[in-house]
Design a protein that fits this description.
flat, mainly alpha
Length: 184
């Protein structure tokens, strides 16, 4: 069996080597073919000289007004199926205003707090599983009483972490749902 595996390894290595040599030859031929070609350098000046054109040309039917690709005249009109509420600007601070930045910071802090609480729950859960395994096996280096005490303390921390995560989630949901922090 080991001889067969060795033979397979030699065949794979040889075929890979042949593929690599063929690829190198093809690349060398490709570079040689492109050697005498012209190269176009695009500079800032080239870009500034370009005239801006609409991405969709306008359509002018015979004897009628100019139409864009959607068939509208003049300024772009909203899609007929779009409710007016969706077209209205969103209420709240402008995206670049200081209050929007403060709101984003608060949201980030609340999200970070919730994520850390979830991570702590996961870690404490893993620790409890490890302690449970120590309790069920007889090859542990610690006494059974010490392991039981550690398990009880970890379970207490786990319950506290769950309460903290629930509070953090509630605060985050209230902040996102209410449009801002609500104080009692």
């Amino acid at each position: 069996m080991p001889a067969l595996l060795g033979l397979i390894a030699v065949i794979c290595t040889a075929s890979f080597g042949q593929d690599l040599v063929e690829a190198a030859k093809k690349e060398k031929e490709r570079r040689a073919a492109r050697k005498g070609g012209t190269v176009v350098a695009i500079t800032n000046q080239t870009l500034s000289d370009l005239k801006k054109q609409p991405s969709v040309p306008s359509i002018k039917p015979e004897g009628g007004p100019d139409l864009d690709a959607a068939g509208n005249t003049g300024a772009a009109k909203p899609y007929a199926g779009t409710p007016a509420a969706a077209l209205a600007p969103l209420s709240g601070p402008e995206p670049d205003s200081p209050s929007a930045a403060r709101r984003d910071d608060q949201k980030g802090e609340l999200q970070n707090r919730y994520d850390r609480a979830k991570e702590r729950i996961d870690l404490l859960g893993l620790k409890m599983l490890s302690l449970r395994q120590q309790l069920s096996t007889f090859n542990s280096m610690q006494t059974k009483d010490k392991t039981q005490k550690d398990f009880a303390e970890t379970y207490q921390q786990f319950l506290e972490a769950q309460a903290e995560a629930a509070k953090a989630k509630e605060d985050l949901d209230r902040f996102l749902g209410g449009g801002g922090p609500q104080r009692k």
